[in-house]
Amino acid sequence: MKTLVWVEHDNTNMKDATLAAVTAASKLGEVHVLVAGEGCAAVGEQAAKIAGVAKVHVADDAAYGHGLAENVAPLIVDLMGHHDAFIASATTTGKNIAPRVAALLDVMQISEVLSVIDENTFTRPIYAGAAIATVKTSDAKKVLTIRGTAFEKAEAEGGSAEIEAIGSSGDKGLSSFVGAEIATSARPELTSAKIIVSGGRALANGENFHALIEPLADKLGAAVGASRAAVDAGYAPNDYQVGQTGKIVAPEVYIAVGISGAIQHLAGMKDSKVIVAINKDEDAPIFQVADIGLVGDLFKVVPELTEKL
Q1: What DSSP element (H or E) covers 98?
Q2: What is the pTM of this model?
């Protein structure tokens, strides 16, 4: 069985999400990867070094420069004539491309896969992660998005895959790239950080969020996250949101400050190795999943913690 994996990248560097997708694909058989972009030869070389990858398909064309699903999906469908499954990580980009691929192939897409039982059977979360469903498909071609936190990352070095340049299926004219406002930060990327400090609605306003959460994160070398309530209230940008409708993370340490622990938020961080909760409400649901819980006023506790680090 041959599986095609979508390589996430910015035309210069491959993103870590790809490594977990390769691990998932390896459980189905031979792994091929697709690098589609503009001026992306360096990414193709990086992908060829991933342990376990047999072949790298590189499509270098302006039509793929911004990863528009309307252009990328037909290219993937063309390659599916020689592959049995397509896997993308369940990131914003992956979740944009995979449904279109499934629709063009006229097959079912299985989302947020947590484990591969066999080539036709997979597990995935339902009810915001409160239950795990086992899904079996009879489709000849499989289209999956995988939850990156559920799979170990493949080694980024050690492989020597064949690189094959492939033709472009061109710009389909269904969409166009207008622009992007991308937040930049010296802190680690949220989905790959080893430590995350997240703030919730209890911080009361954006000034408190920045004054309390960011100094603690900087002392720990951590990424900054936020609950949906904090993002909706304008305390933090959308890019910080952790949860079912935000980013799924599983760092070594997750510090939840003033977060009650709604199921939507827990679905995005409950796989963290160590969860630390700071909340003045001792009955807050977050304490049910926390490894370390501190009941106290965050406006006193967090500055003291930051000072002592």
Answers
A1: helix 92-105
A2: 0.84
